[in-house]
Design a protein that fits this description.
alpha+beta; 18% helix
Amino acid sequence: MTYTGNIQKMGALTDEQGRVHYTLQMGGDQLDMNALLGKELEITFLGEIYCKSCGKRTGKSYAQGFCFQCMQTAPEAEECVLRPALCKAHLGVARDMDYARQHCLQSHYVYLANTGELKVGVTRASQIPTRWIDQGAVAAVPLCITPNRHIAGLIEQQLSAHISDKTSWKKMVSNNINADIDLTEERSRAVDLLTAGMRRFVCSDVSLRRFIYPVAAYPTAPVNHNLDKEARLSGKLLGIKGQYLLFEGERVLNLRRFSGYRLSISG
């Protein structure tokens, strides 16, 4: 069967054991991605890209799914999405204050995660555990809860001098995990790195979440497939982790990178 549609990132849910289950919306169909594991798939870019903000067709995708104009004007593409400390919504400054009230002026968590190595990150409270799954974390723990994105960003910025705020996609998709990381101990160390003012945001929630991804075999030297250069990718699907599809032959496809692309998936 063949499914066609403009894709966005995969949806993900977990069960009580932390096993991740993925779905992908393709037009009017919702694909059960876990059910495709072990099957031969063919993914083809059909040559059309649509902005995930305004919906208009664009010749090139910017910032994972925007047309050039929306990249510069859409609230979803504002600078604080990637750099929370720069958020000015608390000062009444934003591309769209209604959007900011729903996305920036909400409770945010600063967290620690193991995505291969220790990392610190920021996410809205409503995006837990989705954010952790999207990053391919095998485990994560909350550190602070703040009333807005700006304060969470300042705390992340403080910690990023000692803890990486980036994920190595190669380590993540190859499951090259530093098993010596004890997130409970790292959380205690991180608290000590905060200023006195920041420590008042340390949350009482110390629950550690673990995630099990649907993967039969991990690549050892993953190669990222670029649909802009090679429109077709075919082969056996061996796993899904983060927003990556893992294929035989060491090939991986970051579906989120191609948000707004019109694809066909058959298998």
